[in-house]
């Protein structure tokens, strides 16, 4: 794992040593196992490296291949090492356990040229200077797990893992990108922006996920090299074959991601996604005589559960069931007493280098990384992408499948599935069949999700940037409409790029700060392609929603977790409880921004006022579910980001 940077002059002017020092100096606040640079007349490359895998020990970065006149700097872990070595016809199999990932990437570039990213699976951002062809080639992994920002001004190309080094250069101005800002404010969900090469700064771009970039002869060209949602259809002989296929591909994804010279940790909730990750990882680590460390957020002491019976803010019962069943686990339960997301805003803005939307999660995400660092965790697993890959399949998808059987007159199959559903859910055909028949003849319900979005962007900024027209062009819902076609939604999710950036930005920058690499097996492209290729009915078989993962993890997860449909975990339910001691300060800060023209230029202050008036003092815990609370937190985060930019 590395923070990488580079600067290339295409006008033959020598690079200033001051500029190269500026690019590297920001990285000094992060721990490092090695720091090295390469400076020629018109080319500078640098790497601030943290050793994560056994092969990365004493890895030379930047690395110069004299024969080929190629230099690489890389922030990468390649998971399909054996496959790449076979494609490269490397006969010395000992290299599988010794060759650094960066040299594998370089050899892939030598053989495949600019097609090389297609052959790489893992988390990576890298750049290669091709001296003979006077060009720089760079790529970012399919989901943007590692960040790569750049600036191009015709005669200069400069890139970095972080934004701050670029902003520190004298030839780059800190001009705010109003289009990006407008999209951030107008999109109600977790997506920051739909312009995938944009950042909050007008003169700094990012290489989008799944893309490579070539800079040559003062020209820049970007190319998308893979689409995660392009899987073909897989037809197997039986349900058990689909289950075995899942276990095989997921075990490979987990095994590849626990390759590390240090300890392995994992986030663990009481649900299916992280539980599946932990079940597979604990078993594999046992073969390596290593123990898995798990980290679970729990509510602060004194918090009283106010949620409906279906929700569980405290998932310890189910977590401990998974820990006991899997074995080989050192479990940790962290309540982060005295911490809250409000007091973390300034630090998290500095960490992210931009506004963010996952307000309720910041303190425990950061806190888990802090605790893991103390015991030498180098790889931290999670199951963040699982809802769209391994555990796909909601009640709505189940009903839609049954309705499709009804409409196609597949009576035998329908009755068999309904029988299974009734057995699982303790109901009868007399209830289920009339419900399905009614749904089958009714038009699609698209009246809304029940959570209409209150627009709080300044109308003038919205009009100036044409933000809502742009969101409509990208099929982004900003009106709270219900999703009716789940299959289309899932395809669009994987074929689009904008859902990916949030996790990559946070993971990269948390990783650098705490010297560990956050890795998600549910986000492995091989797992995603498998899950997208199988028939939809595999997700609703045997009367169960999320059927594939429930069937495939039999014996891996305890049945109390695997078959649980009664409860659902809810992280962050104690957000308002934690903020009560700072609530007056929070509201006062929101009121004070009204007098600042900076806020008036971007926010609809009337909406902010109305949102503030919705809340009583002392605040109720239920406010965490109120969209007005999101309006206020996001407004404050954006405002503080812009004020911080003024100070910079």
Please characterize this protein's 3D structure:
This protein is an alpha/beta fold and 648 residues long. The chain is built from 25 helices and 19 strands. Strands 2-3-1-9-8-10 form a six-stranded antiparallel sheet, with helices on one face. The protein has a six-stranded antiparallel sheet with strand order 4-5-6-7-11-12. Strands 16-14-13-17-18 form a five-stranded parallel sheet, sandwiched between helices. Strand 4 (63-65) and strand 5 (70-78) form a beta hairpin. Helix 6 runs antiparallel to helix 18 (525-533), helix 7 runs parallel beside helix 8 and helix 11 (395-407) crosses helix 13. The longest helix has 21 residues, at 627-647. The chain is globular.
Précis, in short:
The chain is 39% helix and 15% strand.
């Amino acid at each position: 794992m590395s923070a990488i940077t580079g600067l290339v002059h295409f006008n033959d002017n020598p690079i200033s040593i001051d500029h190269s020092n500026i690019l590297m100096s920001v990285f000094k606040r992060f721990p490092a196992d090695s720091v090295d640079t390469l400076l020629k007349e018109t080319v500078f490359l640098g790497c601030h490296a943290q050793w994560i895998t056994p092969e990365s020990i004493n890895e030379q970065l930047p690395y110069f291949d004299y024969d080929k006149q190629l230099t690489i700097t890389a922030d990468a872990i390649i998971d399909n090492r054996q496959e790449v070595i076979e494609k490269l016809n490397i006969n010395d199999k000992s290299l599988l356990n010794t060759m650094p990932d960066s040299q594998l990437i370089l050899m892939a570039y030598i053989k495949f040229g600019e097609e090389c990213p297609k052959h790489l699976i893992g988390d990576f951002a890298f750049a290669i200077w091709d001296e003979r062809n006077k060009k720089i080639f760079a790529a970012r992994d399919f989901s943007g797990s590692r960040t790569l920002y750049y600036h191009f001004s015709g005669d200069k190309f400069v890139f970095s893992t972080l934004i701050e080094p670029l902003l520190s250069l004298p030839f780059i101005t800190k001009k705010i990108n109003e289009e990006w800002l407008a999209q951030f404010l107008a999109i109600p969900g977790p997506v920051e922006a739909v312009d995938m090469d944009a950042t909050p700064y007008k003169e700094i771009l990012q290489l989008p996920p799944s893309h490579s970039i070539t800079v040559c002869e003062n020209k820049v060209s970007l190319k998308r090299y893979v689409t995660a949602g392009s899987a073909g259809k897989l037809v197997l002989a039986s349900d058990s074959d689909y289950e075995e296929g899942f276990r095989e591909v997921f075990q490979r994804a987990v095994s590849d991601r626990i390759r590390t010279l240090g300890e392995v940790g994992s986030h663990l909730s009481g649900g299916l996604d992280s539980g599946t990750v932990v079940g597979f990882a604990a078993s594999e680590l046992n073969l390596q005589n290593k123990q898995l460390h798990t980290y679970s957020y729990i509510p602060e002491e004194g918090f009283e559960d106010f949620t409906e019976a279906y929700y569980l803010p405290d998932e310890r019962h189910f977590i401990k069931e998974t820990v006991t069943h899997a074995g080989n686990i050192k479990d940790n339960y962290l309540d982060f007493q005295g911490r809250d997301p409000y007091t973390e805003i300034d630090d998290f803005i500095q960490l992210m280098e931009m506004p963010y939307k996952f307000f309720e999660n910041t303190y425990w995400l950061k806190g888990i990384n802090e605790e893991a660092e103390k015991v030498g965790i180098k790889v931290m697993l999670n199951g963040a992408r699982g809802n769209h890959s391994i555990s796909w399949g909601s009640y709505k998808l189940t009903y839609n499948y049954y309705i499709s059987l009804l409409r196609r007159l597949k009576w035998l199959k329908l009755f068999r599935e309904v029988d299974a559903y009734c057995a699982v859910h303790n109901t009868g055909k007399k209830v289920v069949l009339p419900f399905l028949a009614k749904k089958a003849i009714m038009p699609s319900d698209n009246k809304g999700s029940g959570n209409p979005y209150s627009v709080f962007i300044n109308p003038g900024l919205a009009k100036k940037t044409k933000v809502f027209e742009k969101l409509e062009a990208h099929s982004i819902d900003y009106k709270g409409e219900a999703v009716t076609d789940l299959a289309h939604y899932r395809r669009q999710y994987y074929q689009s790029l904008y859902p990916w950036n949030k996790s990559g930005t946070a993971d990269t920058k948390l990783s650098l700060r705490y010297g560990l690499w956050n890795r998600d097996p549910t986000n492995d492209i091989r797992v995603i392609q498998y899950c997208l290729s199988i028939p939809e009915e595999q997700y609703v078989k045997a009367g169960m929603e999320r059927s594939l993962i429930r069937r495939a993890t039999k014996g891996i997860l305890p049945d109390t977790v695997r078959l649980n449909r009664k409860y659902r975990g809810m992280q962050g339910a104690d957000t308002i409880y934690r903020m009560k001691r700072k609530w007056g300060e929070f509201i006062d800060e929101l009121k004070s921004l009204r007098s600042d023209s900076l806020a008036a230029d971007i926010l609809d202050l009337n909406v902010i006022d109305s949102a503030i008036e919705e809340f009583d003092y002392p605040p109720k815990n239920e406010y965490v579910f109120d969209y007005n609370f999101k309006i206020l937190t996001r407004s404050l985060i954006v405002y503080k980001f812009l004020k911080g930019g003024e100070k910079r």
